[in-house]
Design goal:
The model has no long low-confidence stretch (mean pLDDT 97). The two termini are 38 Å apart. This protein has 374 residues and is of the alpha/beta class. The strands form 4 sheets. The protein has a 7-stranded mixed β-sheet with strand order 2-10-9-8-7-3-4, with helices on both faces. 39% of the residues lie in helices and 15% in strands. Helix 3 runs parallel beside helix 10, helix 11 runs parallel beside helix 13 and helix 12 crosses helix 13. The longest helix has 22 residues.
């Protein structure tokens, strides 16, 4: 069993990664973990390096990754997909770029519920499309909820809906009823759907959107990867899953996906084949971090909606009365977080905080943030 507490700030900083390169500041902004990866993956990658496995993708590994992905989504989520309909790419965003560049007409309209992963807001614009942000609402139950009435209104003149579930940055796991409402809107208004499920391996109770209804699958490209659950983002490998009519629709578009690295495909294959035990330990540890922070924030000036299915969290820092709370936390608390304004208009008083560090690191960072807020 991995000792996640051993990954203290010194160990994290010694990794030399972007997340920790800000001098004297704790890194809680880049969406990666400080825990390395599962020992079984580390062993496979180390062995590959010793074998000089630094060239191009062998065909057998390509097929292995397709089959490992199909097996994983059936085992974990009950979704039966054909391995032939798993397309490999270098990243989840490859799938979005392929849709933006080669499935939409120039000047199309893309609906993005906010707060949202930052590239969802700027990539469509780079491809000549219009983005309609639909701000979400904090429900009476303390959970972030999609604004379906506003989504419906926007859908009347839109072409693509970007769905992110589990939801970066709020940490929500959308339930079946919510997903069906999204799907029904997409069907009524003939929207394509880019479905980002990259955090799904970290979630309990995850429901694959495209598996809910054949009509949803017909218009959806689902993107998944081992990069978040197993901390392999830098190895560049993701998978696009299609079903129903989308198989044929996406076929000519696949050529625009960037190739994954061989090491990335190897890491993903091993993760999906043999990583369940480590993943279970990781999820238990992350839940401990979430529970700790929930207790620390209770009754404090900083507010949040307790994350359900990712290691990312969305904190309301409006009590600071600052134009950009992220700048204040960096300057006064030496904690590096994401500025809310980069995840959607109207969220300037929020910050995104990454919980995937050792408990001591998270506790110290939240303590320092609270000292600034109080």
């Amino acid at each position: 069993m991995t000792d996640f507490d051993a990954f203290n700030e010194d160990v994290a900083r010694a990794s030399g990664l972007l997340k920790w390169e800000t001098p004297d500041a704790s890194g809680h902004w880049v969406a990666e973990m400080d825990f390395g990866t599962a020992p079984v993956i580390e062993e496979a990658l180390t062995d590959a390096l010793h074998r000089g496995f630094l060239g191009y993708m062998p065909r057998g590994l390509h097929r292995r990754t397709q089959e490992a992905t199909a097996s994983m989504v059936e085992r974990r989520f009950g979704w039966q997909v054909d391995a032939d309909n798993v397309s490999l790419a270098s990243s989840v965003l490859d799938g979005l770029k392929a849709m933006l560049g080669h499935m939409l007409k120039p000047g199309s309209t893309v609906i993005v519920p906010t707060p949202a992963y930052m590239p969802f807001l700027f990539l469509p614009v780079k491809y000549g499309h219009k983005v309609v942000e639909v701000p979400s609402k904090l429900g009476e139950d303390g959970l972030w909820r999609l604004d379906f009435e506003s989504i419906e209104a926007a859908a009347a003149s839109a072409d693509l809906f970007i769905l992110c579930n589990p939801w970066n940055p709020t940490g929500r796991i959308l339930n079946e009823d919510e997903l069906r409402r999204v799907g029904d809107i997409a069907v009524r208004h003939d929207l394509l759907v880019f479905n980002d499920e990259i955090h799904a391996p970290l979630a309990d109770g995850h429901v694959p959107f495209a598996d809910l209804d054949p009509a949803f699958a017909d218009r959806t490209v689902t993107a998944i990867a081992a990069s978040k659950g197993f901390n392999l983002a830098g190895l560049q490998c993701a998978q696009m899953i299609t079903a129903g009519k989308m198989i044929e629709t996406f076929e000519p578009v696949k050529q625009w996906l960037n190739h994954p690295t061989a090491l990335g495909a190897l890491g993903a294959s091993v993760a999906f084949e043999s990583g369940d035990e480590w993943l279970a330990d990781l999820k238990q540890y992350l839940r401990g971090n979430i529970d700790m922070v929930d207790a620390m924030l209770a009754g404090s000036p900083l507010k949040w909606s307790k994350p359900q299915g990712t290691y990312l969290s969305w904190i309301d820092a409006s009590a600071l009365g600052a134009e950009n709370p992220a700048d204040v936390f960096l300057e006064k608390a030496r904690v590096h977080v994401n500025a809310g304004k980069t995840l959607g208009a109207g969220y300037e008083q929020f910050v995104r905080f990454n919980l995937a560090s050792s408990r001591a690191v998270v506790e110290r960072s939240i303590t320092r943030m609270l000292e600034v807020a109080n």
